[in-house]
Amino acid sequence: MTSQITTINPATEQPIKSYDLMTNAELSEAIEACHKAFLSWKAKPLDERANIIRAIGQELRASKTEFAKLMTEEVGKLIGDSEQEVELCASICDFTAEQGPKELADEEREIPGGTGVVSYAPVGVIYGIQPWNFPCYQAVRYAIANLMAGNGVLLKHAEICTGSGLFLKQVFETAGLPKDLFTVLLIDHDQSDAVIENPHVRGVTLTGSDSAGRTVAAKAAENLKKTVMELGSNDAYIVLEDADLDVAVKACVEGRLYNNGQTCVNAKRFIVTEKIYDSFVERYAEKMRDIEMGDPTDQDTKLGPMARNDLRDKLAAQVDESIDKGARAIVGGKTPDRKGAYYPATVLVDVEPGQPAYEDELFGPVASIIKARDDDDAIRIANDSRYGLGGGIFSRDEKRARKLAAERFDTGMISVNGFNIAIPNMPFGGVKDSGYGREHGGFGMKEFVNIKSIYLA
C-alpha cells in the first residue's frame, strides 16, 4: 500500500502537494473524535445549528477566490466554473439555514385518544465517499444537510482533490463548526471498508460510478447501514419536432461542455427527431467546432483539460470503439499532441445500440447525436438506458413538454428548454442504475435521521 497521496495539476502535469495517508490507528481515532463531537452537536437547538451553517456560507464566499484557484489547480476546472461552484455551495448553506429548522421541526398529528408527534432525530456519524469533479460541491451537498440534521460527517474525497477537502474542513471550522464534527479521512479503499464497519458510522453516501455504488452499497448492506447513491448517467436531451433550434443548440452545447464535460448530469445523448435532425446536427457541429482548448485559469477559455490522463485515455478509447462499431466523428475525436489531459470537443453521429456512445457514460466533452423517427420514438430512445439521473426536453409547447417529463420520461430530473446542474430548493437524484435517495430541496436533511413516532395519550 502506498503511504502517500500526491496531487497533480492536469493542465501542466506537475505535482502540487503530497499528503500522508492515515494509519489504521489514526483512522479509528478520527472516527471516535467525530462521534464525540456528534454527541455534543446533536443536543444543539436547530436554530443554533442553522446559524453556524449560515456562517459557513459566508466563509465560503469570503474564501471563494482562494478556493476556486485550488480546485482549478487540482482538477482542471475552468476558473469561472470553480468560482460558480463555491457560490452554489454558499447558496446551499443559505437555503439549509433558512429551511432546516422548519423541515426538521417536530410535527403533531391527531391520533385516537391523544396526540402523535413525529420527531426527526440525528442518528450519528455519516460517511461520504465523493468524486473529484466538484471538489467543493460534492462534499457540501451531503455534509451541510447532515450537519443541519445534527449528524457528524466523515469525508473520503477523491485523492486528486485532497487539498480541496482539507480546505473545506478549514472553512467549516473557521465559520464556527466544532472541531472534528466534519472530518476528512486520508485513507485507501481497504481502510474505507473498515469505516463502513465501524459501529459509530450509521449511514453511507456515495457519488460515483454504478460499479462503485454496487460495491459500497453491498458492504453497507452487510452491516445494515442505510445508503444514498448518486451514480453515473448518460443523460438524454430530446429535441422534439417543434423545438426552437436556437434555444436547443445553445443549451445542448453548454450542457455537454459544462465542467469540461465531466458532470453526472451533463447532457450526453442528444436525441433529435428526423424532421429537424440535419439542421440540428449542422448547427450543433458548427458551435462545437469553434470550441478551443486552453488554460483553465484563463477566464476566456471555453474548454480545459480533463482531470487525469487516464480518464482522458478511457474517453478516447470509448470514442474509438464507437467509431469502430459504426459511429462517425464529425467534430474532434482525436487526442491532441500536447501536454496535459486535454481532449477536444467532439460530436459523434450514426450512434446506435451496442456502441459505448449509446450505452455508456462518456465522461468528457463528447456529444452523441441519435436520430429518432418522431417524438414518440425520441422518448423511447431516451428511456432505452440503464441510467436515469437527468435529462431534457426542447419544445415550443411547454405544457406538452411538462406532461412528457412528468408521465413518460424515466429519469430523476428534467430540464425543459434549458440546462440545469443543481438548485438548492429542488431535489437532486436519480433512478435505475443512477442510484437512489435524494439530496437538496429539504429531502437530503431527512435521508439520515431517525423518524420517531411519539404517542401522547
UniProtKB/TrEMBL annotation:
The keyword Oxidoreductase applies. Belongs to the aldehyde dehydrogenase family. InterPro entries: Ald_DH/histidinol_DH (IPR016161), Ald_DH_C (IPR016163), Ald_DH_CS_CYS (IPR016160), Ald_DH_N (IPR016162), Aldehyde_DH_dom (IPR015590), ALDH_GabD1-like (IPR044148), GABD/Sad-like (IPR047110). It comes from Devosia pacifica. Keywords: NADP, Oxidoreductase. PROSITE patterns: ALDEHYDE_DEHYDR_CYS. The keyword Oxidoreductase applies. It holds the Pfam family Aldedh. Residues 4-454 form the Aldehyde dehydrogenase domain. This is Succinate-semialdehyde dehydrogenase. One of its GO terms (molecular function) is succinate-semialdehyde dehydrogenase (NAD+) activity.
